[in-house]
Amino acid sequence: MKKTVLLLFAFVVALFVCGAAFAHHGAAAYGDKVTVLKDATVTKFIWANPHTILLFDVKDDRGNVTHWAGEAGSPSAIGILGWTKNSVQPGDVLTIYIFAAKSGNTVGRLNKIVFADGKILRDSQLGGDQPAQ
Predict the structure, then answer these.
(1) Looking at the DSSP assignment, which residues form a beta bridge with residue 93?
(2) What is the pTM of this model?
């Protein structure tokens, strides 16, 4: 009986420890074509694991504001590509290249961002132009 309880306890602990590994997602939720969002205004940049998040607003053809969220790699992954926690500031106006969600929600995986002065920050060492894998 004691051995059974101990084994059950070990199994439950293993589920909790390993569960986080199974929770991570791939890029299946995103389309494979890049959507270009011009004149996007940054509202917040979250520099945190497991993904950095760029929150921004975009106006449609009628002037209605749409709120977007774009995820990029972890700080360590995009840091080697030139990003820092201060790379993007609220109020920055960017052109954003994003693999939008297949669901139609205004979220996606960042491909690259382009600043008004032409500076580019990419989310991939492959150049930021490959489809989501």
Answers:
(1) 41
(2) 0.75
User: Judging by DSSP bridges, how do beta strands 65-71 and 107-115 pair with one another?
Assistant: parallel
Beta carbons of 96 and 37 less than 8 angstroms apart: yes
The predicted structure's pLDDT at residue 32: 87
Burial zone of 125 (CB within 10 Å; 0-12 exposed, 13-18 middle, 19+ buried): exposed
Q: Which domains are present in the chain?
A: 30-122 (2.40.50.140)
Residue 54: Cβ within 10 Å count: 25
Q: How far is CA 12 from CA 3, 6, 9, 121, in A?
A: 14, 10, 5, 43
Q: Are 38 and 95 in contact (CB under 8 A)?
A: yes
**Percentage of residues in the chain with pLDDT exceeding 90?**
67
